[in-house]
Amino acid sequence: MTATHIYASDVAFSPAVKSIQSRKGSREGYAEAEQRGWRTEVDESLAAFLAGANSFYFATASADGQPYIQHRGGPKGFLKVLDKQTLAFTDYAGNRQYITQGNLSENPKAYIFVMDYAHRRRVKIWGEARVVEDDVALTTALMPKGYRARPEQVILFKIAAWDTNCPQHIPQKFDAADVAAALAARDARIAELEAEVAALKGKAS
Q1: Which domain holds residue 205?
Q2: How far is 71 from 113, CA to CA, in rounded Å?
Q3: Where do the coiled-coil regions begin and end (predicted)?
């Protein structure tokens, strides 16, 4: 925690934010919450949540504060936990704009937002990130096996704090692959029942 950060939540609750909370009547509640503490390390619940994630949003900002948000996707679990305070993922070759990398070269502060629409859950993770180039062993270790993408580099993310949100206003959506699997299981069960019915009819006749 830096000298200006007494609580882990201070990474988000700046003096300006706290001032507005006071003016709008929510400061007392959040003051109690910040003393209980936002989490600063990966626990079992966060590890399990990330292991099931196949998508997240990654936010950075330039030195002058211009924000940028980029989507990252891959097989479930592609955002990996290296230790209790470090996440990592393979950065795939893309459109070669390099806005995220440029931002991180002058401002390491970053933010990960993971949404689970099916279960209406979201996790917010604050921290600092850096790009690791030319580390073949690390890139190979983090690259999802069999995934059709060209790894270019790795992004390491050091956690400062993380928190969850309530499900309010989150629309429930499902991945196409999960829907297809559920429908296939249903169709297989229907076929099984139809076969049983046909067999029973045959015995009855």
Answers
A1: 174-205
A2: 10
A3: none
